[in-house]
């Protein structure tokens, strides 16, 4: 998560030279030479954006101009090699820039970045209705320019065309979505027999100009193409599949709500809304109801496996926390000792009895005390014995940052912030529920939840504590550590206590607790904090914070901090 926010209004035309991709003629050498005066420019195989990128050229390097074609310049890259750059990237050549493809921004506060991806630093915002020229494309990102701004934005938030007489002369975007598989074919026509014109990477974001049956029309490298929507997660049409043999549909978003119907394993539904770990689905024509989200599976995102209608313990796993943990023949410390397990060993859960998990050994079953293990957050939770009662009955709202079409930051190793925050929240939820806390997740699936909605869950349920979970990123890959934020003075004590707990438990740089102007804190009337639990932009730290060991330690530290806070 980025920690700095700038407004487009404070940006000046200087941004064009500081962040734009441009070159300039260097007179005094030869008028046929150009020098790159910005960070990087894409060099293409031919004179159009539809040609593949063959090389990148960088600031300060000078190249000889071989030829020009339309608005493109061919430059010499080596002894027998050349490539093409857009002529309208030449500094000061605004007449050529006017010939670039035009587009209109379709949303407010679209983030401008220094490069094509969420890992690049933000430089400001651009708002709905702004006309821009498209200078370059890379994957689903475009490099744009207008009279005052320049940079990279997601292609999801533009429409090609211009505004004339207060009417937008553009193509209508019918839907947006994300590719669920690698090497997804883009075809010239809406048919499996259509000519393949390119391929998409997994998680590529798309804007559909038209949808015909199972085919969606997109713009791909400047030309129209079609993709099979069976391999696309369509925003606003988030599908989930039932994993339970039978799953009840309830009238309200509570586990004791009136039962309306029963759905079955393999049934697939559109998720209309999430609340209190429940998902609202349309189970029949014009009939909606609520089901438990833990018994749903989204494409490529396992949420839960094989529960039963009576909420019996689900197939799950537990991880041993201590060396020499006893595995017994029954759910009591007086039963026969069958074996011992060491820290880090995992076992399949068959059931829960009292405060004990029933597990599968090689040739027999055994029981292990629930307070000696951690879970993946999916099995019915055991209450720990003999532990302090500070959290019993406390309402804790855990807010896994980002989700859905908002991935958050992207780690240098490919970790998506939205996935890691949900993983951390689920593990922490499991620990807190063991001691009787009433834990609510703002999202329990890979879905987009607005900031006001996240705060609303905290306010509506009168949360005793609200914790927003994030992971950080910055352009400087050397920066590391954790940071704890608060906004109001009544939130400061929670931030301080959690900061102390994290600092004590983790072998990681602690950047302390501090003021942070975040919506989920500023608009929140409850005790609330926002945690940045490490930098995904630091290669070494990304490896560390995504490990099972770190996830176990960081959630235990937050758990311990909450125990202290509620003393």
The gist of it:
With 567 residues, the protein is mainly beta.
| Unreliable parts | 2-30, 162-172, 299-315, 376-387
Sequence of strands across the biggest β-sheet:
13-12-11-8-14-15
Characterize the largest beta sheet: strand count, sense, and whether it forms a barrel. Answer: 6 strands, antiparallel
The count of helical stretches stands at: 8
Q: How many strand elements?
A: 43
Structural class call reads mainly beta
Q: What is the mean predicted local confidence, pLDDT?
A: 75
Share of helix, binned: 10-25%
* N-end to C-end Cα span: 31 Å
**Radius of gyration over all CA atoms, rounded:** 27 Å
Please report which band the strand proportion falls in: under 5%, 5-15%, 15-25%, 25-35%, 35-45% or over 45%. 35-45%
Overall geometry comes to globular
């Amino acid at each position: 998560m980025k920690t700095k926010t700038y407004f487009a209004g404070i940006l000046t035309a200087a941004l064009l030279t500081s962040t734009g991709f441009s070159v300039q003629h260097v007179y005094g050498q030869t008028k046929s030479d150009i020098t790159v005066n910005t960070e990087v420019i894409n060099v293409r195989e031919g004179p159009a954006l539809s040609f593949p990128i063959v090389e990148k050229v960088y600031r300060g390097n000078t190249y000889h101009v071989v030829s020009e074609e339309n608005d493109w310049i061919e430059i010499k890259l080596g002894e027998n090699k050349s490539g093409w750059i857009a002529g309208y990237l030449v500094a000061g050549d605004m007449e050529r820039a006017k010939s670039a493809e035009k587009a209109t921004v379709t949303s407010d506060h679209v983030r401008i970045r220094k490069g094509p991806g969420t890992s690049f630093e933000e430089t400001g915002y651009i708002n709905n209705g702004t006309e821009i020229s498209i200078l370059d494309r890379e994957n689903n990102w475009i490099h744009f320019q207008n009279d005052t701004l320049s940079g990279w934005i997601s292609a999801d938030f533009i429409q090609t065309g211009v505004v004339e007489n207060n009417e937008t002369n553009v193509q209508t975007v019918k839907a947006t979505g994300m590719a669920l598989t690698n090497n997804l074919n883009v075809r010239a026509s809406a048919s499996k027999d259509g000519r393949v014109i390119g391929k998409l990477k997994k998680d590529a974001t798309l804007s559909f100009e038209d949808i015909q049956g199972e085919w969606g029309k997109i713009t791909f490298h400047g030309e129209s193409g079609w993709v099979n929507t069976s391999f696309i997660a369509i925003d606003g049409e988030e599908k989930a599949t039932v994993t339970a043999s039978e799953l009840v549909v309830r009238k309200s978003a509570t586990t004791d709500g009136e039962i309306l119907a029963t759905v079955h394993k393999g049934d697939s539904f559109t998720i209309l809304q999430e609340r209190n770990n429940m998902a609202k689905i349309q189970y029949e024509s014009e009939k909606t109801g609520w089901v438990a989200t833990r018994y749903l599976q989204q494409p490529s995102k396992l949420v839960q496996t094989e529960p039963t209608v009576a909420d019996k313990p689900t197939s799950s796993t537990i991880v041993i926390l201590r060396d020499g943990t006893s595995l017994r023949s029954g759910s009591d410390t007086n039963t026969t000792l069958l074996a011992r397990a060491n820290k880090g060993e995992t076992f399949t859960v068959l059931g829960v009895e009292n405060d004990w998990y029933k597990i599968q050994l090689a040739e027999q079953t055994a029981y292990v005390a629930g307070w000696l293990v951690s879970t993946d957050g999916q099995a019915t939770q055991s209450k720990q014995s003999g532990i302090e009662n500070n959290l019993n009955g406390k309402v804790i709202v855990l807010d896994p940052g980002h989700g859905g079409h908002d991935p958050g930051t992207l780690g240098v190793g490919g970790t998506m912030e939205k996935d890691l925050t949900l993983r951390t929240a689920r593990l922490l939820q499991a620990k807190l529920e063991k001691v009787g806390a009433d834990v609510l997740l703002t999202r329990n699936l890979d879905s987009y939840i607005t900031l006001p909605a996240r705060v609303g869950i905290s306010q509506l349920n009168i949360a005793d504590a609200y914790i927003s979970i994030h992971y950080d990123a910055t352009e400087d890959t050397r920066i590391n550590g954790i940071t704890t934020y608060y906004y109001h003075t009544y939130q400061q004590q929670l931030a301080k206590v959690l900061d102390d707990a994290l600092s004590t438990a983790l072998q990681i740089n602690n950047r302390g607790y501090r003021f942070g102007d975040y919506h989920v804190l500023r608009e929140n009337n409850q005790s609330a904090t926002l945690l940045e639990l490490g930098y995904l932009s630091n290669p070494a730290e990304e490896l560390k914070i995504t490990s099972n060991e770190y996830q176990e330690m960081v959630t235990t530290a937050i758990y311990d901090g909450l125990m202290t806070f509620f003393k």
